[in-house]
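Internal tracking record. Fields below are filled automatically when a chain is submitted to the structure queue. Please do not edit lines marked as system-generated. If the sequence contains nonstandard residues, flag them in the REMARKS field before resubmitting.
Queue: standard
Priority: normal
Entity type: single polypeptide chain
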Amino acid sequence: MKFKSSKVNEFRLWGLLLTMGGMLLMIVGLAGIVFNWGTAGKIMAGIFMVIGAIAMLASMAVYFWAGMMSTSTTVIECPECGKPTKMLGKTDRCMFCKTILSLDPKHDPNANA
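SYSTEM-GENERATED OUTPUT FOLLOWS
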């Protein structure tokens, strides 16, 4: 559980992974042209470029979605670190210290009852 982060940061992580994966696919596809693999290399480059571009567009959509959700989140102050953090849903984690937060007492994991 120590690798968990807030929901907004999880969406941003997926956007970053799609961006890096798309660029990696485009670079791998470029090897077919750089190393002069003939017609097969050009076809491979085209296919990998298209798949990489689709991954980049998907990352743009994920970043846009995370940004739109981020504008409508509830900003609360973390009881552990005292920093303002954004909260999505009924429970979330602090963006800084990863403490589990909840606005609803029945969903609060730190409650004694």
